[in-house]
Amino acid sequence: MKKIKLTPNLLANGLRGMLTAAAITVPMWLIGRAVLGEAVIGLLYLAPIAWSANKWGQISGVSAALTAALCFDFLFIPPFFTFVVGSLESWLVLVIFFAVAILVIGRIQDSLSKAREATFMYELSSALGNARTLDAVAHTVVRYIQQLFQASLVGVSFQPSKQSPQVIARAPADGEEGSKPDRVLPILNAWGLVGEIQIWRGEFGDLPSEDSPLLQNFVSQAARAFERIQSMEMEQKTDDLLPHAGN
Description:
Order of helices and strands: HHHHHHEEEEH
Number of helices: 7
Distance between the termini: 68 Å
CATH architecture of the largest domain: 2-Layer Sandwich
Helix content: 55-70%
Strand order of the largest sheet: 2-1-4-3
CATH superfamily of the largest domain: GAF domain
Radius of gyration: 27 Å
């Protein structure tokens, strides 16, 4: 399991989640537990948790959930103004609340990840469609993969034949390999194995498995783009030779 570094940005997001959960506590406490009831209070606490997770990320959502659970226990579950839980029913309320909160955070993060991946794939497809050289394709692929996964290093090598020069791209350009890549993805097209994509994991997050749809989509996009550029170059060479053949 990767160790998450607590950067100033993550700490700030966590604080925002805590303050958001605390903010909704004030009006609920003024209205009172007798008016709202425990079930309504638990549902209302889900709003700042979902908002924090959607706005500032998973750390913020978890911070909001922990803050909400503590405030819920301290102010609205007897005995009041203490973190002692006085009955089995109250324990069940807290456990169910926290489980639902974590489930909500997970669902929101999954939705955000899928939306982000879909946006990246659309942008990658558009960028590759505008590429006019093999080198441009390679650099576009490594740049998008590195940005999406925050990888420490991404490399692409492409060589359609032994007679052709090898195309190599890396992102970041000054990145050092240091060890074996965490993911190696072969690039296949109509000519067979023509290259590979290598990915080194970054400090944050993890990488999908090599056979995941997302990584395979990257490989497929790269292979089609390389094949398109090759076909264009071969057609251009043929057109250049035709006038000479007529003479």
